[in-house]
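User: quick one, fold this
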Amino acid sequence: MAKQQDGVARGATGIYFSNIVSMFASTAHFVVLTNLLSTTEVGIISGIQIIAYLVSTLSNFALPQPIMTSLPIPHALSKFLPQYYGSGQRAKAVGAFRVSFAITLLLIIPLTALIFLGAEPIAVFVFHGKAEPFWIQLSSFEVLFFTLNQFFFAGLVGLGRSGRAGLLYSISLIGRFGLAALFVFLGFNVAGAIIGYIIGDVLLVLLVAPILFSSLGGKSESILASTVAKFSFPLLISSLIVFGVTQIDKIFALFELGLPELGIYTVSVAAATIGAYAPNAFSTALVPVLASMLGRNDQASFKSLSKVYTRYVTLLGMPTAVMIAALALPLTRLFGPEYSSSAFPAAIISIAVAITSFTSVYNAQLIASTRVRWVMLANIAGLTIFGLVLSILVPSSSFVGAAFARAIMIFVVAGITTYSSYRLGYLALDKRALLSSIIASIGMGTILTLIPYVIGGYARQLVSLVFLVPLGIVIYILLLRIMKTFTVDDLVFIERLLPRRLKGVIGIVAKIAGVSTKKVENLTGQIS
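Assistant:
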């Protein structure tokens, strides 16, 4: 159990690290884009990304990694590879990989050609004639390589190498967003951003493909395409629904409000979903391990591990989302004065993400146990309500209405997912961690909300972010310590994650957390 817990933690840490890198790289490049391009051009880039995410979802039967949701739909390889490897059927794992790759290629190649050949009508009808057909043709290549890098990333995660996947993904993201920002800065505008994205996507393919083909080479046992499709098709339906859930308000903004408004609203959603990074990472890393446990019929470990990770998702995900809500105004002002109107919508969505963060574990349970239909039903209900509320609120309330609609949808999907876990007998929750995190997050969030208004001034609020973020972390940890939230197990968990040369700092961490160093010594024997 401890070994499996460590495996999930290391995998989740790798993916979470890549998500954090993505956040900083994406935010930095977006600051460049929003300050050098018009809101219309930013809207065009946002629209092109929506197309790339949709095509990747269709070709991989899974949500792409950049779509941040606390209830992600992972690739079928996250199920098949650990299941076959866990039962000693390596040849079947190789067969499943090859069939999945063939299906992806059969879908992505014609879809790429369709976008390239249909560039002019797409520019006219989707982008209201404000996008150049050449940009759409360039984007077809981004769609192709983005889809392939998502497939290879999923394969590496399925092999149990989530940490390596996270590291390589981080490298490609730095290249992707760094080059996009550089090319825009050099005056290549929208085309420059797309070329930067393409190079970054190609980089991940080149880094990951050799590892996968060497690990999954050799003897292969024939796997029927129908076997993969039978499991993948419900995932595709669920992924398309979640795609709608995560993107429908942007699509609504594109066609109802226009490209400039889409650019502004994209900033609010991007800021708000930062809180979903931890839940997303843990859910992605949990699926292969939980699937392996069920393959051995180890129900006790399945439920025990789930409870452990409701604790860590709550303690990490909730305060992050609350901090984003509290600092929404100065954060959105990073992108320019015209983006300040996205602050309140960002705060609304962030609060919903915070409250529902722990339900990502239940989502992982349902997928690992092949109860994909429950995930699908939860998201169908969420999408239906989302669309209904959008149609009512957006015409009168614009961005704020779209944010309220998204928040309501998040609560609906999380509620049904939690109920599904309960019905199946999987429900597990660290109630103490949840209560402590709620209290500490509210305290931290209240203080951080008040300070920017006291400081006042556009420039002063921007500068204040440098010390407000670390201040929020200190306040949150201090409140958790006062409530005696941290345990010896938490310290042992952290100690196992640290490289050998850094294990000595666990004593300092123990003092900060208010946990007896001697107790940790007794369990680990590592602290001197």
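User: anything notable?
Assistant: The radius of gyration is 22 Å.
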